[in-house]
Design goal:
Two copies of one chain form a homodimer.
Chain A: H1 2-7, H2 21-34, E1 43-44, H3 46-53, H4 57-69, E2 73-76, E3 80-83, H5 91-112, H6 115-133, H7 137-154, H8 158-180, H9 182-200, H10 204-226
Antiparallel strand pairs in A: 1-3, 2-3
Helix pairs in contact in A: 2-4, 5-7, 5-8, 5-9, 5-10, 6-7, 6-9, 7-8, 7-9, 9-10
Chain A binds a DNA duplex through helix 4.
DNA sequence: ATGTGATATCTGATATATCACATAATAACA
DNA sequence: TGTTATTATGTGATATATCAGATATCACAT
């Protein structure tokens, strides 16, 4: 029966994978704000966006609620909705924030990850090693991100996962640039291996420190290369 | 004219201070979920809540968006909305998360707070000392919270403020209990004073460590007293 | 008793209308 | 010309209707 299901896989069109209008609006506006197309202080109007996107104000309104919760915009009741200052937040400090939160995740993972989770992490780090040797850069970048996510998930704390997801949606463009640099790829693997070793040896303190330092070093390097 | 405005302050009914239906729903549901009235897996239905609260589904729907973004509930399109597992997240780990984020805030504050901000912090810690001497417990609790908020705000990073606000809305009940214990009040002041001194002396590393340790100690003490 | 198609019901998604506060523009008056 | 009152407009908040996917139930054939 399982084989039969696979045969019809191509027919699948589950609505769980289909994006709602609200999600489309969120992603569009978030991208426009973060990349500077909308600047702090700019006014966003429900009816204008509704016309521009050819949809009703309802998904626009719902998207505003989420973006406001993320701090990217601010709504004053019956006065207007404006892009907030958050979009100009210091990217280095965002990475420091990410560093301390992922560091804590590494600590918790070292303290309580199951043997199975450790095995999965080991498989992952080995996969990354193979990709590094074969110089398959695009795949390595993707697996690096997965490695970080696996650590965060293994911490088993939904609030930590949520905070990191919010940070991630904010600095996606930055992190991709960081990982693309060739030097980063090699140094990054070396650090990832040390992080995994610390987790495997059940050393919470060291795990936290290594992951914090790893993230803070990548931001320092990227900013150096930018001439900032 | 300014004096006149103050005289009539009690008449003020500015809509900026009036809670929207959406905000009322958010707070009601969040409280019900966090305190266990709604349990993970429970179904929340827009039309049921609409009838129960005597309002339309629109503010219910918007509240759902926010609570989902906070991770407290999960909506499956056209299937239903359910209370998530987040509400059962380990409270100690939440406090550890708060510790690392507030610690980072203290570090940034020590690094870049203006002289004026330092003066404000000094006024605040002195106010807290007076309240401690006079044993005005309720006011001291409130000023302690304000002290933490001043440090976070002085860090000048909107994302950090936002993360802490989300954590705060989640563990408000816990923190109030922590601060109410008499022992905590005295130990808490001592630690607050050390934190301020570290910030004042522009020592980012020490500031971060002290604030982290302060928060982690309070959670350890509270859990000890709970017999957990 | 079981399988299948048709129908009904449930639930969130979205569209549209209306309300209500805030501000701008215009008219009236001194 | 300046001030005040009135009206119009703009914007978000909320109510209500309808759509559309998902599931449950019913009716009928085998």
């Amino acid at each position: 029966m399982n084989g039969k299901e696979d045969v019809f896989q191509f027919l699948s069109n589950k609505t769980e994978n289909v994006k709602s209008l609200r999600e489309v609006v969120i992603e569009s506006l978030r991208e426009a704000i973060i990349t500077g197309q909308f600047k702090p202080g700019d006014s966003l109007k429900e009816r204008d966006l509704s016309k521009a996107m050819g949809i009703s104000t309802t998904p626009i309104k719902e998207a505003f609620r989420i973006l406001e919760h993320e701090g990217l915009i601010k709504t004053l009741p019956r006065k207007g909705t404006f892009v907030s200052e958050l979009a100009e937040t210091n990217i280095e400090e965002i990475q420091m924030l990410r560093g301390v939160v992922e560091g804590l995740a590494a600590r918790l993972t070292a303290a309580k990850a199951s043997d199975e989770q450790l095995k999965e992490l080991e498989k992952q780090i080995e996969k990354m090693e193979t990709l590094l040797e074969n110089e398959e850069v695009d795949d390595l970048i993707e697996e690096n991100t997965r490695f970080h996510k696996m650590i965060s998930d293994a911490a088993g704390n939904s609030m930590i996962s949520r905070v990191l997801m919010n940070i991630s949606s904010f600095d996606k463009a930055f992190r991709r640039r960081a990982l693309m640099e060739n030097k980063e790829i090699k140094a990054g693997y070396s650090e990832h291996r040390k992080i995994f070793d610390a987790i495997k040896s059940r050393n919470p303190e060291l795990s936290e420190q290594l992951l914090k330092q790893h993230i803070l070093r990548t931001v320092t390097d990227v900013l150096k290369n930018k001439g900032v």
